C-alpha cells in the first residue's frame, strides 16, 4: 500500500497494549507497542520511542499520535508510546511537570527497548511539544543506544518558554490552556478497562497528588529547581531533526539551542502554530516525509542523502515560498538600523532628541491572539490596527522595493517612567502595513522593565535603556508596504498585565530607541528548496465531534475585554470505552483596574467503559496573586471525590525563587 503522506508502507501493524518497562527503582512505565505484523516473527526492528503525560490510550495516544505510530510501524519500526511516571497506566508517584527525573526514566527506557528481541538495538526518540522536550532531555543523558531524535515544537527551557518569559509572567499558555487542562488529566485512572486492585491503587495514589498548575505558584521546591529542569543542548550529539513553526510558542528557544547541537542536524522553520505540520489549518505541510527519511538514515543506515542536503529549510512569509539555507541565521544577513522618531516616523535617519509619551492600556494585545500558538484553528495573520491604537507606533515610508527580514530583529528602547521599572513589561511588535492601512503582525517580543540599565539623566529625568531580540522570523515586505514598530506595556492575553496604570516616556535621538533588522538578499548560488509531497491520508486517529472555537469581547459600558474559548472532542479508548473532553475558558482584563485580571476555566473529562463511568469536573480561577482549583469526581453518577487547592503568590514568589507581578 502506498501512503500518500510518506514513503511506502510495507507492513500491517499489531498493537500490544500495556507493555511494562521496568525502571531501576522498581517502578514501571506503561506503554503501547506498535510492531510490524505480517513479517518474519523472528525479525527485529529499529525502535522509535515517545514519552509524554497525556495518556497513551487517550488524548495523547489514541487522540493525537496513534496514526503516526501506526505509520512508523508500517514502515518497519517498533514504536513504543510510554506514559511518564505517575500518569496514565504507569506506576510510581506523579512527578512535577518537566521533572529532571523524566530524562533518567527515558534513559532506562531507551536501553530496555534496545535489549528486546524485537529491536535491532538502534533507538530513536521523538515527539511534539512535551514529547519533543523529553526527546531532547533523554538525548542530553546520552544513552548508548539512542541514535537520533526528532523534537517538534519543543524548547530546552520550559520555564523560560512557557511560564515566565524574559521575566514576564505568561498568562494564556500556562494557566487556562495547559495548566488547567492537566488537572483533570492527572486525576484520571488508567483509561483502559482493568478491573483489578493494582489499577485502583494507582488511581487512589493519583488522587492524593498535588496539581501541576501550582508548580509555577509559590516557592519552588529548591532554589535551583527550574534551572535544573533545563536541557543542555551542547551535550546532545545524536543526529537531531528540529521542526518548529514561526507562530509556535518556541521559535526563539529553537533559535537559541540550534547552534549548540553537536551532532548531524536539520532545521525546519514553517508557517505553523503548535500542531503537527500536516494538520496545520494554515498551509499544511508534509514534514512527515522528512521525518521518515531521518529515521531511515540514522536508525536503518539507509544512505538516502538526507544528511547531505542543505541543513536548514525556512518558509519565507510574505511571498509564501520555501527556501534552503546553509546555516541559521543566514550569514549574508546585513543589519539595518531604523530609528524611532518623535512624531511616529521609522527611518534610517537619526532623529532629533525628543520624548514621546505612552499611556499604558492593559487591553493591548487582544488583536494578536490569532497569532498565538494555542489557537491552532484560527487562521493568521490578523489586522493589528486596534492594538496599534493602544500603543505608540513608528511607521516607515512605503517601500520602493521588496525587503526581506530573516533572522532575529533587535530592539533598543530608551525610556523614562513614573513607576518602579521592575513592575512593567515592554512589548515590541513588528508589523507589515498594507497600502490599505491593514497592519499584519510579523514578529514580537516582551521583556521585563527591570532588565533595563541606568543611562543617566536628560532634562533632569532619569532614563533607562534595554536591548532585546525579537522572535526569529523570515518575512518579505512587499513594495508599497511599510514597516511599523509598535511599543506598549501590554500583550494580553499572552502576558499577565501590570496591575496598575502608568506612563512611559520613550526617547528618540542619537542615544535613543531603534530597531535593527537582519536584511537578507539573494543567495549567490541558489540552493534547491525543500520539497514536500501533497498532504493527505493521515487522519488524527479516533477523535470525533471536535470543537475548537474562540471569541473576543469588548464591554461597551466599560474598558473590559475578554478572550473566550471552547474545545471539545471524544476519543475512542477501546472498542467499548470512550473518553469525552471539554474545556471552556475566559480570560479578562479591565483597563481601568488591571489588577483585577483573571482567568476562569471549566473542564470536564468523562470516561465511559463497562467497569464504570467516571466523570471529572474541574474549575480553576487564577489571578495576579492567587490560584484556586476545585475538582469533583463522580463514579457511576454518585459523588466519589471532592478536592480543593489554592496557592497564593505571597507564599514565596513565582518561578525561580523570585517574586513576579
Task: Offer a concise description of the structure.
The protein is α+β, with helices and mostly antiparallel strands. The protein contains ten helices and 33 strands. The N and C termini lie far apart (57 Å).
Number of extended strands: 33
**Quick check: average pLDDT?**
91
Terminal residue distance: 57 Å
Name the beta content range.
Answer: 35-45%
SS-derived structural category: alpha+beta
Number of helices: 10
The unreliable regions are 1-7, 651-661
Strand order of the largest sheet: 1-2-4-3-5-6-9-10-11-12
Major sheet size, sense and barrel closure? 10 strands, mixed
- Helical fraction: 10-25%
Shape: globular
Radius of gyration (Å): 25 Å
Give the arrangement of secondary structure elements.
Layout: E1 13-22, E2 28-36, E3 45-52, H1 61-74, E4 78-83, H2 101-114, E5 119-128, H3 130-141, E6 146-152, H4 158-163, E7 164-165, E8 168-169, H5 173-187, H6 197-207, H7 225-229, E9 240-245, H8 251-258, E10 265-270, H9 288-299, E11 312-316, E12 321-325, E13 334-340, E14 346-347, E15 354-359, H10 385-389, E16 392-395, E17 403-407, E18 410-417, E19 425-433, E20 439-448, E21 453-458, E22 461-469, E23 473-477, E24 482-488, E25 503-508, E26 514-519, E27 543-554, E28 560-574, E29 577-590, E30 598-609, E31 612-623, E32 626-635, E33 638-648
Parallel strand pairs: 3-4, 3-5, 5-6, 6-9, 9-10, 10-11
Antiparallel strand pairs: 1-2, 2-4, 7-8, 11-12, 13-14, 13-26, 15-25, 16-24, 17-23, 18-22, 18-25, 18-26, 19-20, 19-24, 21-22, 27-28, 28-29, 29-30, 30-31, 31-32, 32-33
Helix pairs in contact: 2-3
Amino acid at each position: 500500500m502506498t501512503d500518500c503522506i510518506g514513503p511506502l508502507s510495507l507492513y500491517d501493524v499489531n498493537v500490544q497494549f500495556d507493555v511494562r518497562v521496568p525502571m531501576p527503582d522498581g517502578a514501571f512505565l506503561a506503554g503501547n507497542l506498535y510492531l510490524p505484523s505480517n513479517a518474519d516473527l523472528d525479525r527485529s526492528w529499529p525502535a522509535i520511542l515517545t514519552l509524554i503525560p497525556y495518556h497513551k490510550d487517550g488524548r495523547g495516544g489514541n487522540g493525537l499520535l496513534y496514526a503516526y505510530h501506526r505509520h512508523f510501524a508500517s514502515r518497519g519500526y517498533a514504536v513504543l508510546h510510554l506514559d511518564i511516571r505517575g500518569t496514565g497506566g504507569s506506576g510510581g508517584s506523579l512527578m512535577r511537570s518537566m521533572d529532571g527525573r523524566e530524562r533518567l526514566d527515558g534513559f532506562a527506557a531507551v536501553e530496555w527497548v534496545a535489549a528486546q528481541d524485537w529491536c535491532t538495538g538502534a533507538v530513536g526518540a521523538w515527539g511534539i511539544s512535551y514529547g519533543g522536550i523529553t526527546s531532547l532531555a533523554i538525548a542530553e543523558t546520552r544513552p548508548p543506544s539512542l541514535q537520533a531524535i526528532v523534537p517538534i515544537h519543543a524548547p530546552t527551557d520550559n520555564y523560560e518558554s512557557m511560564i515566565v518569559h524574559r521575566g514576564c509572567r505568561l498568562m494564556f499558555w500556562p494557566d487556562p490552556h495547559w495548566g488547567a487542562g492537566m488537572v483533570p488529566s492527572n486525576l484520571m485512572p488508567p483509561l483502559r478497562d482493568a478491573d483489578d486492585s493494582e489499577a485502583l491503587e494507582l488511581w487512589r495514589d493519583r488522587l492524593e497528588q498535588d496539581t501541576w498548575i501550582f508548580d509555577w505558584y509559590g516557592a519552588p521546591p529548591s532554589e535551583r529547581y527550574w534551572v535544573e529542569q533545563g536541557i543542555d543542548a551542547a551535550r546532545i550529539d545524536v543526529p537531531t531533526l528540529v521542526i518548529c513553526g514561526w507562530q509556535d510558542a518556541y521559535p526563539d528557544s529553537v533559535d537559541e539551542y540550534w547552534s549548540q547541537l553537536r551532532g548531524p542536524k536539520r532545521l525546519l522553520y514553517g508557517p505553523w502554530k503548535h500542531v503537527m505540520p500536516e494538520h496545520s489549518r494554515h498551509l499544511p505541510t508534509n514534514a512527515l516525509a522528512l521525518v521518515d527519511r531521518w529515521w531511515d538514515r540514522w536508525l536503518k543506515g539507509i544512505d538516502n542523502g538526507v544528511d547531505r542536503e542543505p541543513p536548514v529549510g525556512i518558509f519565507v512569509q510574505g511571498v509564501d515560498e520555501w527556501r534552503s539555507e546553509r546555516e541559521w541565521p543566514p550569514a549574508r544577513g546585513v543589519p539595518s538600523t531604523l530609528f524611532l522618531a518623535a512624531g511616529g516616523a521609522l527611518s534610517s535617519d537619526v532623529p532629533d532628541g525628543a520624548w514621546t509619551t505612552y499611556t499604558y492600556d492593559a487591553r493591548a494585545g487582544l488583536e494578536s491572539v490569532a497569532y498565538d500558538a494555542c489557537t491552532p484553528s484560527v487562521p493568521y495573520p490578523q489586522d493589528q490596527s486596534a492594538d496599534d491604537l493602544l500603543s505608540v507606533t513608528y511607521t516607515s515610508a512605503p517601500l520602493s522595493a521588496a525587503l526581506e527580514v530573516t533572522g532575529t530583529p533587535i530592539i533598543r528602547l530608551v525610556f523614562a517612567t513614573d513607576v518602579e521599572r521592575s513592575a512593567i513589561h515592554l512589548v515590541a511588535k513588528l508589523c507589515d502595513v498594507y497600502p490599505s492601512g491593514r497592519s499584519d503582525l510579523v514578529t514580537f517580543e516582551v521583556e521585563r522593565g527591570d532588565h533595563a540599565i541606568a543611562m543617566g539623566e536628560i532634562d533632569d529625568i532619569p532614563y533607562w535603556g534595554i536591548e532585546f531580540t525579537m522572535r526569529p522570523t523570515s518575512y518579505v515586505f512587499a513594495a508599497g508596504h511599510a514597516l511599523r514598530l509598535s511599543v506598549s506595556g501590554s500583550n494580553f492575553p499572552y502576558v499577565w498585565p501590570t496591575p496598575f496604570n502608568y506612563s512611559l516616556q520613550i526617547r528618540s535621538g542619537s542615544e535613543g530607541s531603534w530597531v535593527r533588522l537582519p536584511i537578507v538578499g539573494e543567495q549567490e548560488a541558489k540552493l534547491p528548496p525543500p520539497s514536500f509531497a501533497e498532504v493527505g491520508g493521515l487522519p488524527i486517529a479516533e477523535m470525533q465531534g471536535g470543537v475548537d472555537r474562540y471569541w473576543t469581547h469588548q464591554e461597551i459600558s466599560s474598558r473590559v475585554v475578554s478572550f473566550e474559548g471552547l474545545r471539545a472532542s471524544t476519543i475512542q479508548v477501546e472498542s467499548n470505552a470512550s473518553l469525552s473532553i471539554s474545556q471552556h475558558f475566559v480570560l479578562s482584563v479591565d483597563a481601568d483596574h488591571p489588577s483585577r485580571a483573571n482567568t476562569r476555566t471549566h473542564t470536564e473529562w468523562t470516561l465511559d467503559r463497562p467497569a464504570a463511568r467516571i466523570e471529572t469536573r474541574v474549575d480553576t480561577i487564577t489571578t495576579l496573586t492567587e490560584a484556586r482549583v476545585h475538582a469533583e469526581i463522580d463514579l457511576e453518577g454518585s459523588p466519589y471525590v471532592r478536592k480543593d487547592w489554592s496557592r497564593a503568590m505571597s507564599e514565596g514568589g513565582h518561578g525561580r525563587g523570585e517574586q513576579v507581578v
